[in-house]
Amino acid sequence: MKISWRNPRQNLLICAALDLCGMLILLVLLASIWSNSLYDQLTWIVITITSYLLFGWLLGTYTVLGWPRLSRWILIQRLGLCFFATLMLVAILRWVLNPSLDIWLVFRSSQLSWLIPTTFWSLFVRVGLRLGALQADEPKLVLVAPEDEAIKALQAWQLTPTRIMPKWLSLDDASLEQSPLILAVSPTIRVKHEYLNLLKEFEQRDPRECNLTTPIALAERELERIPPSLLPQSWLSYSEIPWNALFSLQRQLKRVADFVVAIMLLAVTSPLVVIAAILIWIEDGGSIFYVQERTGWLGQPFKVLKLRTMKVSSPKDPVTWTVPGDQRITRVGNWLRKSRLDELPQLVNVVLGDMSLIGPRPECPEIELQLETRIPHYRKRHWMRPGLSGWAQVCAPYASSVEDSETKLSYDLYYLKYFSTWLDILILFRTIKTVLKVAGR
Fold this sequence. Notes:
52% helix, alpha/beta, 16 helices, 4-stranded parallel beta sheet, 8 strands, two-stranded antiparallel sheet, globular
């Protein structure tokens, strides 16, 4: 299987581009066969193509490319759902907008003639990509490290099962591996005198055939997270993070976008908040909002505002983890958590500057005291404003233990080091997908 598991967004873009090309070619062929002009159909061409690609993204027809094992039936099922969803949306829009009879593309026969072969094309593209078409040979990942370091590194990789594990070898055995090769050599091995000549030989190879790196850099690149257990105590200072640049255009743009978008979202979603508030009150007659102290930027405490999703508890009750099937979650609260609507009041915190739209999620001080003593580099997540959503929220499952929190911290540390406007936009789109699929917890 040659498809790259290390760059899923590249796979998605390749697949989406092929879907787009296929749709356009099929449409041109149909128009030629029927001797119909496409000039007046532009609006509906854009609507249909956008709908098909959007539903394909939401329904996971691109996500299946990253599965270790691809079930053809599940792939066909998802592509079928994408086909029917697109067909239904165009039919509804046609009924609402009532275009003229000259717009032949909205006719059901036209849509079926276009979307049916498109679906078969999409199936062919995905199966072809999984079999290695249009993909370069993947370099082998080799880890060269002492046993204790290798065990830590491999344990960190096991938490991301969709990525290929590196092979743990000695430096002598690594020299026998065929190219292309990505060789992650521990600093402990690099300083040993007996390996200097062999390392020099690796460094002199064509970098396209043998890329020499470190275990930490390999994890950053391949996992898109930075496991704290692999990091030295002196890793990354506050002055080194992109956020620290005082006059950074990206930092200023982030704050402006936070304020403007939060105001707009408050205005648009206020009816949903009102409906949710009524449902919360009807269910048990308790308070609608939940106010709790959280740790913010540089460790400063602030009051976070949420819609209440759990049964009313005493202020004296200890703070505990939320676990799957937690009996404290109300029926309305369960729906609010899945749709992430319980987070909407935090837009007020964003407007006030306590939070950002994108950043590490704020945690309870009581839980953080436990996490800081058990997880290295935990306090560094406070070097940026906490966010409504974040890289950890869209990449990792809900944290219900110290081990889960360490995994989420690895994503927060990656975001901290590689913060950019592009990464924020990527997180925003993945958050929208989670909300639309009601896939939160």
